[in-house]
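Researcher: I'm comparing several assemblies side by side, and this is the next one on my list. It has 867 residues spread over two chains. Same procedure as the others: predict the full complex and return the structure.
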Amino acid sequence: MVLFVFSTILFLLASLLSLISRREKWKRLLGCGGVVAASLTGLVPAVLLLAGGDPVEMTLGSPIPSLTLRLGLDALSAFFLVPIFGLSALVGLYALGYLKGEGRWLGNLPFFPLLVVSMAGVVTARNGFLFLMFWEIMSLTSYFLVTTEHEQREVRHAGWIYLAATHLATAFLLVFFVLIFKKTGSFDFKDFALLKSGPWTGLLFIFALVGFGTKAGIFPFHIWLPHAHPAAPSYISALMSGVMIKTGIYGILRTLTLLPPPPLWCGEALILFGIASAVLGVLYALMQHDLKKLLAYHSVENIGIIVTGLGLGMVGRSQQNLAVEWLGFGGALFHVLNHAVFKGLLFLGAGNILRATHTKSIDRLGGLIRFMPLTGITFLVASAAICGLPPFNGFISEWLLYLGLLEAAKTSARFPLFLCVSAMVGIAFAGGLAVVCFTKVFGVAFLGNPRTEHAKPLEAKWKQLAPMIFLATACLTLGIMPQLILPWLQTTLLSIGSNASPLATGHPLVNLGIFSRAFAILIALFLLVHWIRSLLFSSRTVRIAPTWDCGFKGPTPRMQYTASSFAEPIRTFFHVLLKPAVSARNPEGLFPDKSHFEEHVDDLSERLWFSPLVDKIASFLSGLRKRQRTRVQDYLAYIFVTLILLLLVGVWIGI
Amino acid sequence: MDWLLVGVVLTAFVILGSSRLDSCIRMVALQGVLLSILPPMVRGSLLDWHGLFLAAASLAIKTVAIPVLLARSLKQAKIKREVEPTVSLHYSLLAGGAIVVIAFSGFKLLPVPTGPFPTLLIPAALTVVFIGFFLLISRFKAITQVIGFLVLENGVFLFGMTLIRDFPLTVEMGVLLDLWVGVFVMGIMIHHIHRTFDHIDTKAMASLKDAE
């Protein structure tokens, strides 16, 4: 705990020093370097705890009677602290290179250490009050980081959407903690155990689900993600998508340990939300032309997979099925870690592309792998991992989930059975579409020829590449040797009160060591094929020639398959759901005139629910605004009348 | 101790019912005197340094510093009366009566801490807070706004008496400092409003409204 406090102080110092230093170089060095140093310091106690240390707690003091602020570090906190600090350290190093020569972005840099330390605070707070405080600091600092390029209109717009969404989440959480406070008389997590099981549990769970789900980006509440991620600088998107949205998952898991066992339908609801997020997230991702927006929708998909796992674990718990419980929670937790690794890597790669080509539109890229080989290869590794392909880490966590779903399907009937089967189909479907999606991204952006005449894109500097190579190695290592993480999962699951152990599943395949051998064979086979191929080609001459143009004259790089045309079949298939808006002018006549084609897909939950809702609220408020009074006394009178009424209600009805 | 509380409520009523600004300021000062006697009495010992310190500080701020400041700005602004309150003075007094009824009839049902303080404390505090609020709503001169704010703050101070055993001294000192700074800023504002507009009627702020 001493090291943890020390790292907190380092973060605050980094933020302060970066704020007050004048020279750009020092601002950058102190801000980013401070994050690296502080994160590495904070990583030590988290790893030590997962390796078998004892949970520790620390009292910060009580500012007013009956409120004691406590921080604590147990296995669940540590399991989330590892990706938070680990990815922050790497992102800090990346930002050191990324921000070089970008003086206009440095003004918001002091919020970067604050964001990391507030995330660490969220997962270590042991008091509802303190938790909400850190939660708000996290929301506000990330808002300021999202709006780094606030001179652009759409960035400010995205910032507002994010701010509104995140405050909506906080509002639900506030109600959540206040309801618990009313029942137990305390904000302390320890006292939440006094809560009796009852109809309250379900209600509390719904509040927690909406509150934490908005932050995590579960399907109907995800609308801020596709706006905020493209607006934020890439290193911040990596941090937000990689770890910040996971604080929502942490919240749901922590809620589970605090509340009495929730009824079965809570787990089932989580599975339903999870399937919806996974499938719709990947479908919308496939429709995007903006690289970072696409990655943002993939976060929705992956959160969906994680939430499905959580729901499965809860179903297993309420059915006392140890194997299902372990596989569900274990798969979800493992996927949290994995997603931090590969999504962080993908956003960093997107940052490199953005810096080198100054465009986020996939359709304007092409042939990048020849200019940026290391970015390309690491991006490929991360793409394979996010699609859940062996031998990378995404495969392992999804594998655990599939096993869990199969196990649950074997032992349950009726509605849970239906859910398990749909979840299996849903995740498989999402995985398949993810492969299509990343084939599209990688194929269009990195392969082929450049589509636009821009200056030759330059490969990033080592400060940017080193973290990416590290993350790519992590993808591979976690995939080949998943048994390394198994003890961590075990301690974490013990700390959230499930007694299941991997042995309880009794499933031979859950013995993750088998993957090391299987993947070793896979890699050996791959190398063998590669060797045979180079052997075959060694005697022949290889000639690089232009693509055959089917007899047309003068092919241009713009005739290549575009990302939109690649996704066209799937869009046509799902057009009932996606409702693409097309504006086109077809070429006509023998000598066709100007023609154009434009198409975009609006988000379902934005189109059907949030847009109409916001419009209604806006029209109501503008009606109210016409009634705006001019005297401050009138406003005071409103407050006065409200207070008196509340007092009378409180006195007579007793709330 | 009850006579102190009754005195506090009565002074609030006098402020509510008088149109002369200088007598309002004097009543606020008197209320400050009554309030500063309270802490040592609630603490139960006249030699307790926490209570004495609080008494001295609130006497200095509520009875001396703020009224002097207000009297000075009154002299500068050259006004003597609150000419047109929204609610006439008679109705103000009636409303004050209603407030007392609500406060005294409701408090027994409120979940308040019990302790070694007089039972009248909570309803008296409620009454004073609401009367202060009412002053803020019904008066327009910037100076009466400050007076309303002071009365409200005095009510909050009365509430604070229920916690005087638990609260560290620093919190209460912080509240007093807050009040002092608030009134100070308001005094400066009154001065500037007066210099710029030649009157201190807050109704004129309406000209700042957004154009539609």
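Model: For your comparison table: The first strand of chain A starts at residue 56 and ends at 64.
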